[in-house]
Specification:
Elements: H1 5-13, E1 22-26, E2 38-42, E3 55-58, H2 64-72, E4 83-87, E5 96-103, E6 108-114, E7 130-133, H3 141-151, H4 158-174, E8 177-188, E9 191-194, E10 198-201, E11 223-225, E12 232-236, H5 239-251, E13 258-260, H6 268-279, E14 286-293, H7 298-311, E15 317-324, H8 327-336, H9 345-350
Parallel strand pairs: 12-14, 14-15
Antiparallel strand pairs: 1-4, 2-3, 2-4, 5-6, 5-8, 6-7, 8-9, 8-10, 11-13
The structure holds guanosine-5'-diphosphate (GDP) and manganese (II) ion.
């Protein structure tokens, strides 16, 4: 389960690891009273944002609104952000790559580092990486010394780095992580700062963490952007029905913007989030909602529709068919709001 950067940073911060001062801008939070310069970072569950326009530095207040708007409309590997992290820029001397991960072959935690981190770390040769197992007794003193000499740091930061690695390791273990990656890590004047942070949690350990409540759980992986110029968005449940819905839009001569199977675990919140994602697709004029309630209940979907209509300005027009579990309750909820329901997919497609 890949976390968003701000979620990952919240975890590491709680272990005393420094991150840049930041503020999270959520959907509809258009307050541009940010101080400049500021780094705006698209909160999507994908890496390589820097190269894809998902991380931008804004120097002037008058450019903020446009930069935020552009970020929201910039898809990163098919993901659109519901949040933007606004951070105070950190001046970095050298960008260090540092990660903890599980080495499954050796059944241990491993630390990997590269002194030439940053956006091009992938191009570094394998043999140039620092790579060492973490001893099962958690002894980090020697490892830390080795790392300091590998990084060729000009400042004496052995103690700080050892302390930092201890925090990182504890954070990794206690949170059942399979990857904790900091890139870039900045070490400057004794201060160690995680400028970016990527965390992958072990989904199998979820039962141990009733408090895990992150944006990007599996449900979001069912949202696939198909075409940035698509004029019809779709919300359906079940992969088969979702595909049939997309196909029907296409056959009728329209351009499907996305594929979305809301899944059996859909809640009002997750569906509302899907609506927000759709509204970030620039050309969408109609949202076609095709639900056959089985595990997911039609009234849940109806409540999410009402919420979306109330909270999302300029929401595209909706064509809705809900049948199956609790369809009768859903009907009442929607009729109270004056929202029309269709009986089947064909009828909806004919309205496009
Ligand atoms: P990623 O591309 O998804 O890994 O996103 P990052 O958060 O790593 O940002 C991409 C790049 O932007 C980093 O590798 C840095 O080079 C640069 N960057 C991001 N934030 C800052 C900052 O506060 N100061 C400086 N100097 N560079 C930054
Ligand atoms: Mn990064």
């Amino acid at each position: 389960m890949l976390l968003l950067e701000y979620e990952a940073k919240e975890i590491i911060k709680s272990y005393g690891i420094d991150t840049p001062k930041s503020r999270l801008l959520s959907y509809g939070d258009e307050s541009h009273d940010l101080s400049v310069p500021v780094v705006l970072k698209s909160q999507v569950p994908a890496g390589g944002r820097g190269k894809l326009g998902g991380v931008v530095m804004v120097e002037k207040t008058e450019n903020l609104a446009q930069a935020i708007d552009k970020l929201k409309r910039t898809g990163i590997k098919g993901f659109y952000p519901s949040y933007i992290l606004a951070e105070e820029p950190v001046s970095i001397d050298s960008e260090i790559y540092l990660s903890l991960l599980i080495n499954r072959e050796k059944s241990c935690i491993e630390i990997v580092a590269n002194m030439n981190g940053g956006m091009d770390v992938e191009t570094q040769h394998r043999e140039d990486f620092f790579q060492q197992d973490i001893a099962s007794n958690g002894d980090l003193d020697r490892l830390s010394k080795n790392l300091v000499s590998y990084l060729k740091l000009s400042e004496p930061v052995d103690d700080e780095l050892t302390g930092f690695l201890h925090k990182l390791l504890r954070c990794f273990v206690e949170n059942d992580m399979i990857l904790l990656e900091i890139n870039p890590l900045s070490i400057k004047k004794g201060a160690i700062t995680a400028v970016d942070c990527k965390v992958n949690l072990d989904q199998a350990a979820k039962f141990r963490h009733p408090d895990w409540n992150f944006q990007n759980t599996a449900r979001d992986n069912n949202f696939v952007e198909l075409n940035n110029e698509g004029n019809v968005a779709t919300i359906a449940n079940g992969a088969g029905l979702a595909m049939a819905t997309v196909d029907a839009v296409k056959s009728a001569g329209h351009v499907p913007a996305n594929f979305l199977d809301i899944g059996g675990a859909a809640t009002v919140e997750t569906i509302a989030e899907s609506f927000r994602k759709i509204t970030l697709l620039p050309a969408v004029k109609v949202i076609l909602i095709n639900i056959f309630g089985g595990i997911v209940q039609c009234d849940t979907v109806a409540k999410a529709i009402v919420e979306a209509k109330r909270n999302i300005p300029n929401i595209p027009s909706l064509l809705i068919r809900l049948s199956g579990t609790n369809a009768d309750i859903a009907k009442v909820i929607l009729q109270d709001e004056g929202i029309h329901l269709y009986d089947n997919l064909d009828d909806m497609v004919n309205q496009l």
